[in-house]
Amino acid sequence: MHVRTLPNVDIDYLDAVLLDGAGRMRLLGAASLREYPHDHLLVWAQKRGRYGFPTRELIARLKTLIGSKRVIEIGAGMGDLGFHLGITMTDSYIQTSPEMQLLYHTMGAKPIEPPPDVERLDAAAAVRKYKPEVVLASWVTQLYQPGDEGPPKVGSSIYGVDEFDVLEHCKMYICIGNRDVHGDKRILQRPHVELQGEPGLVSRGFDQSKNLIYVWET
Predict the structure, then answer these.
(1) Domain boundaries, the chain
(2) CB under 8 Å to 29, separation ≥6 — which residues?
(3) 11 — alpha (psi -120 to 50), left (phi > 0) or beta?
(4) Which contiguous run of DSSP H or E holds residue 80?
(5) Are 79 and 117 in contact (CB under 8 A)?
(6) What is the pTM of this model?
(7) Which residue ranges in the chain fall short of pLDDT 70?
């Protein structure tokens, strides 16, 4: 995983570009986003509690993948992606806990504070309540297992998602991520498809060429 220090730049000007009056991310074309320095987008995402940028191309691609199947989003965060798809959004709200708030502020990042239309449900509860055919996630961290601290270190969290459990409760699991950040997910051991080089993938990852969509089907 690459480690870089983000520049100290004023990114407030991007609020008018990226956010609507309700604080939801606007649906822009990927080309429009790439008109701005990517370092500025990275800093903005870190300070505004975002990981990926919804784009017209990404929404269209996801609609093609999902089709008419029943779908929910887990780990929806600020709800930008699910809102533009018009789907049920859920999140554990773990980043609103005092401990996580302190951790994120220590790192100079903004913790996610989901809006009211994102239902407070962790992934396990969400798939059992809604019984979806498709589960969508973006930049979710996998559940910690003993030994993940390494060596080699595996990206995980005690608050992460049991993705194997999710896959057992749906017909298709779609996860948007970045190979540098999510390439050590254990669920990648299961048969899946990797859609890399998609034109609509813009994220806070340092290497944008490694953005991709993982798709598992049961």
Answers:
(1) 13-217
(2) 55, 56, 57
(3) alpha
(4) helix 80-85
(5) yes
(6) 0.94
(7) 1-6
